[in-house]
Amino acid sequence: xxxxxxKETIIIYAGLINALIDHIEADFRPSIFNRQSLKMKSKSxxxxxLKVEADMYKGDPSGEMTDQYLDAGNLMITxxxxxxxxxxxxxxxxxxxxxxxxxxxxxYGINLDTNF
Length: 116
Description:
Layout: H1 6-26, H2 35-56, H3 64-88, H4 91-107
């Protein structure tokens, strides 16, 4: 795997943390976790990442990174759910779906070179 740029790393971290916060807020089931504490700690990490983002984009009002990590976080949850579904499939179906996804991604110029 190629080394990620600082921007890509911050987007990934912020996207994952934001997706976690969204999941905590949307999950109403009883849990062994102290959700409020977990949410506060996650928001603290997100705040630190946003400080790095602000420093990286001084003088650039585009807000590009913030939009990217919000979109990426939502997509990560969707692909995580897909991964759970694929893990529950028999191996032949899972490999077939993986092949089809890789073909679809390549048609859009996306080269992940990975198995789902």
